[in-house]
Amino acid sequence: MKKKIFIAAFLAGGTLCSKAQDIGQIIAGSKADANKYFNNYMQPFGEGQIYNLSRGWFSTARAHKLLGFDISVNMQTAVVPTDKQSFIFNNSDYSTFKLHSGTSAAVPTFMGSGTSNTQIDVSTTVNGQNASTSFTAPPGIGDDFKKNISFLPVSVPMPVAQIGVGLFKHTDLKVRYFPKTSFSNVDIGVFGVGLQHEFSNYLPFIKKVPFLHLSALAAYNKIDATYRPDLASGGSVSSNNANIQYGISSFTVQGIASVKFSLLELYTSVGYVGGKSNIDFKGDYTVKYNTTFGTQTATTTDPISLSFTGNGFTNTWGMRLNLTILKVYADYTFAKYSGAGLGIALAFR
User: Fold this and answer.
1) Angstrom distance (rounded) from CA 219 to CA 194
2) pLDDT band at 13, cuts 50/70/90?
3) Looking at the 3D structure of the chain, how many domains does it have?
4) Separation CA 166–CA 230 (nearest Å)
5) pTM higher than 0.85, yes or no?
């Protein structure tokens, strides 16, 4: 399960695919039903990553001098609200899915906790015959998250690495970049750019308070990932060309203030975040069904296409230790998906 947490952090969606055989029968229903279920199941993950991607851009309002630079690595976590860790499955919301028992039940989302034993029956038509199968509502990774990262509430994690360099007139250019690269059955690429401009020197009263700094930030970040699950024949769902594509983009504008003492620096910001994330199951998927005349198969193409949006105001509070060129910082952001961040940087001002 530690592997699942790792994949969730670094592949931004690949964990769903690691259990593709277990949840494959969700595709057995109509496309409308499968998309509705997956939309509810993946919503906290898709939305949480939008907020994560907009964070970690700064740990001070101070700009570098010309050609000063820093290299930073931090981990961002978007806390999943309790009401986003499960959703209500109602028979009336689906045409080909029905609970095996009852008409309504709470089932986990991807970030949910608890083990689900809820059986969902699938009834459809294959080659003109009535066909059926069933699946157990897939569990979330909430319990495993608590077990392996017990000091945090259930959260959507994301690592962030970036470089900042001082340009001109108290302006820093910040870059996040990783070329699209293949790792076994995963491709992932990252691009992000931001500008932070310090305007403390423009305000006469700020010059009288040299330890106080003010700046503004505008930034954009995008991640594209593709996962190719191993869906060899023999399982309930099989495919020779399956791939799950995940894309997330996020922008933010922030007003930042920081107060620098000898070793300690305190910072805060108020800003706005907006973005979008997409999860798409591409390829041909063959599903097995039970019919009156034995087992039948049917193939569906590009069965799942999900889109999530997130936007709203944020407020960050943090502190940083300035140990010569080494900087260690931590912060907390209040938002729809609040979250904590922890990072280190090497800075040459």
Assistant:
1) 4
2) very low
3) 1
4) 46
5) yes
The residue length of the chain stands at: 349
Q: Report how far Cα 143 is from the mean position of its chain's Cα atoms.
A: 18
Q: What is the rounded radius of gyration, in angstroms, for the C-alpha atoms of the chain?
A: 23
The range of the structural domain enclosing residue 175 comes to 2-348
What is the tens place of the pLDDT at every residue in 160-186?
A: 899 999 998 899 999 999 898 888 788
DSSP strand pairing (264-282 vs 237-238): unpaired
The CATH number of residue 53's host domain is 2.40.128
Residue whose pair of structure tokens reads 């945090």 in the numeric block: 152
For residues 149 and 119, give the distance between their C-alpha atoms in angstroms, rounded to a whole number. 30
The tens digit of pLDDT for each residue in 179-224 reads 988 887 888 899 999 999 999 888 877 767 778 999 999 999 999 9
The three-state DSSP-derived secondary structure of 119-150 is EEEEEEEECCEEEEEEEECCCCCHHHHHHHCC
**Token pair for 227:** 């996962």
Please provide residue 208's backbone torsions phi and psi, each rounded to the nearest 5 degrees: -80, -5
